[in-house]
Amino acid sequence: MTIFCNITDCKNWMPLNEVHHMKHKPGFTPMGKTDEYTGQCRNKSIKIESTTAHSQHTKQVIATCGSYNLDEVRYDNFQCLEERCQYFLDPTTCSKIKYDEDLYVGWTVVFDGLERKDVPRCKSFAHRKRENAFNWGNAAQGIF
């Protein structure tokens, strides 16, 4: 597992020699440079925290990087507190990194009340699949 990160003002950020592109499923084409990562985290593992931002009309679920600007010594083991992610197994286990997939962290704009904030978000976060829901995309590919 590698933690790719675009948050250059974090003291744990380390530049890459070449731009890394996020891996996608076949057929998906990203818009602009949203899948480009110019650095990675110096830490071997990170902490993902659970956050919800409430604006006047919306509620936004956010998995933020709890290791942002903190020393490596504090998080020598992976820790995820975002139970709403489909990769969440328990606070120290993420099924995504279990299969040696990479994690991605980048800036996201959220509105908390009327205030606009930039937060370091785990871009690998995915909402839990709904129980008993049928995935038509997988069915089209012959996966049941």
Task: Provide a descriptive summary of the structure in words.
It is a single chain. The strands form three sheets. This protein has a five-stranded mixed beta sheet, with no helix packed on it. With 144 residues, the protein is mainly β. Strand 9 and strand 10 form a beta hairpin. It starts with a strand and ends with a helix. The protein has helices at 95-98, 136-140, and strands spanning 3-5, 13-21, 36-41, 47-54, 59-65, 79-80, 88-90, 93-94, 103-112, 115-122.
What is this structure's SSE topology?
Blueprint: E1 3-5, E2 13-21, E3 36-41, E4 47-54, E5 59-65, E6 79-80, E7 88-90, E8 93-94, H1 95-98, E9 103-112, E10 115-122, H2 136-140
Parallel strand pairs: 1-9, 4-6
Antiparallel strand pairs: 1-3, 2-3, 4-5, 7-8, 9-10
Briefly characterize the structure:
The protein contains two helices and ten strands. It is mainly beta and 144 residues long. The radius of gyration is 16 Å and the shape is globular.
Identify the notable features of this structure and list them briefly.
144 residues; 40% strand; globular; mainly beta
For the largest beta sheet, what order do the strands appear in spatially? 2-3-1-9-10
Q: Helices and strands, in N-to-C order?
A: EEEEEEEEHEEH
Number of strand elements: 10
Beta content: 35-45%
Number of helices: 2
Helix content: under 10%
* Low-confidence sequence ranges: none
Q: Outline, from the CA principal axes?
A: globular
> What is the end-to-end distance?
28 Å
Rounded Rg: 16 Å
* Domain module tally: 1
Mean pLDDT: 82
Biggest β-sheet strands, sense, barrel: 5 strands, mixed
SS class? mainly beta
